[in-house]
Amino acid sequence: MGNSSPARLFFALVAGGLFGAGLFLSGMTDTAKVQGWLDVFGAWDPTLAFVMGGAMIPMAMAWLVARGRTRTALGTPLPPQPGTRIDRKLVIGSVLFGIGWGLAGLCPGPSIASLSYGGTGLYVFVAAMLTGMAVAPALRRRLDNPVAAE
Amino acid sequence: MPLDWIWGLIGGLLIGTGGAVYLLINGRIMGASGIIGALVDGSASDSKWERLSFLAGVILLPILLLPFYGGAVDTHITDNIPVLVAAGLLVGVGTRLANGCTSGHGVCGMSRLSLRGFVATCCYILAGGVGVVIFRHLLGVI
């Protein structure tokens, strides 16, 4: 199990459960709702903004609590502050992700949350997504170092 | 429609609470693409079981809630296979290049006022909006 204690596994399950329940109850596994949010010129659906806003409240409080600490409740170190660099991997990657997100109305979280009820189309999407994730490191290296990749 | 907003808010609060638990107890930043992606490209190594446990929770809770919805939820997912394949590849590659998706950059990044989070979120929402205009209203494929 690597360095994952039973307590870590349990709380990972709890965190994942809260995430999955939230995606399910908010309707974010409904592709029509996501595309409705992106479809500014169609029947615009603002639900996603409420989901995002709602999610940021407890998360912002968690960051505030984390700021005054160095260790988690289980005694392990808190993660280092994520990088701050705005590079082309961030911009190109986010644009590619956005196009795919709009095309199918699915992003990684909801695609996993709806695995039990999404049907065949969802399996096709998830298989393609996993394939994309598997080939991404090679592309990332190319963007990091375009000359050496030739 | 007003009920949709309320459920959106309730669901959002649960999502954020999940992120808070993952950060303050497990010491990890909750991003779906990172949790899944590291398992796929082999970079998860010693955190493999923790990631699988998180994903088990993500799959299991909707299964437990499904009976309250009559056992079925319409996801309105398209049956256009080429669209699903293209969308999946773009989401997979894009989130791993950008090192985050709606949960990582959107929820966890923007809530700590990270510039990277804001830039990524603006990029994917703009690209998604332009994509829907092009593919729905101009080309009619979705």
From TrEMBL, chain A:
The chain crosses the membrane at residues 47-66, 90-115, 121-139. It comes from Alloyangia pacifica. Keywords: Membrane, Transmembrane, Transmembrane helix. It comes from the Bacteria. This is YeeE/YedE family protein.
UniProtKB/TrEMBL annotation, chain B:
It comes from the Bacteria. Keywords: Cell inner membrane, Cell membrane, Membrane, Transmembrane, Transmembrane helix, Transport. GO terms for cellular component: plasma membrane. It is found in: Cell inner membrane. InterPro entries: Sulf_transp_TsuA/YedE. It is a multi-pass membrane protein. Its main location: membrane. The chain crosses the membrane at residues 6-25, 52-69, 81-98, 118-139. Belongs to the TsuA/YedE (TC 9.B.102) family. This is Sulphur transport domain-containing protein.
